[in-house]
Amino acid sequence: MRVRNGFVSNSSSSSFIIGIAKVIDLNAAAKSVKKLDRWDFEIREVTSEEDLMVDSFDGSEVRLSWDDVELGDWILRIDHTANEGDSHFYNENWGDMDYDINYDDCDRYTRHAIDNLKGIENLELAWGAGRNG
User: Fold this and answer.
1) Is 1 contained in some domain?
2) How far is the CA of 34 from the CAs of 53, 89, 110, 123, in angstroms?
3) Tell me: the pLDDT tens digits for 16-39?
4) Do the domain assignments include residue 6?
5) Does residue 99 carry a pLDDT above 90?
6) E strands, 1-133, where?
7) N or C, which end of the chain has less CB nearby within 10 Å?
C-alpha cells in the first residue's frame, strides 16, 4: 500500500477544503483572507439559500442555517480543491494509482485557517480527499 503524505494534488486523487462562515467584520475578514492565499476564498452577500451551502466532489458539504444569517448579510465561502494531474506523480511501474490519504496536512491547514481567519463567526469546515476523475 502506498500512502501519499501532504496535501494531495492531482486530478484523479484530489484533496479539498470547504467552508462557510458569517462575516461580522468585512474589513477584518478581507484582510485575513489575503494572508491565506493558498486557498480559494470568496466573500459575498447572501442573496438566496444557495449561498448558504458549499459542497465538494465526494458529496461532503457545509452549510449555514437561516438561523445564523439573513438576506443582505455577508458570508465567507471556502471552496479549495488541489489538482495537478496524474502525470506529476505517475510512474508506469506503479500500476493502480489509488492511494490511501494522510489527512494530517488537511488538519494542519484547517487549524491554520481557524487561527488566522478574523471577522467571522459560525465557521463550518470540512476536508477530505478522493478520486474525482
Assistant:
1) no
2) 22, 30, 16, 17
3) 888 999 999 999 999 988 877 666
4) no
5) no
6) 3-4, 13-23, 41-45, 53-55, 61-63, 74-82, 100-101, 120-131
7) N
pTM for the predicted model, two decimal places: 0.71
**Coil, strand or helix: which one is 87?**
helix
Residue 5: inside a domain, yes or no?
Answer: no
**Number of domains making up the chain:** 1
Cβ pair 2, 91 in contact under 8 A: no
Q: Which three cell numbers stand for residue 33?
A: 483572507
Is the torsion defined by CA of 96, 9, 79, 119 positive or negative? Answer: positive
Domain of 35, CATH number, reads: 3.30.70
In a domain, 9, yes or no: no
Distance between CA 42 and CA 119 in Å, rounded? 14
Domain residues for the domain of 19 are 15-131
- Closest CA relative to residue 125, chosen from 83, 82, 84, 76: 76
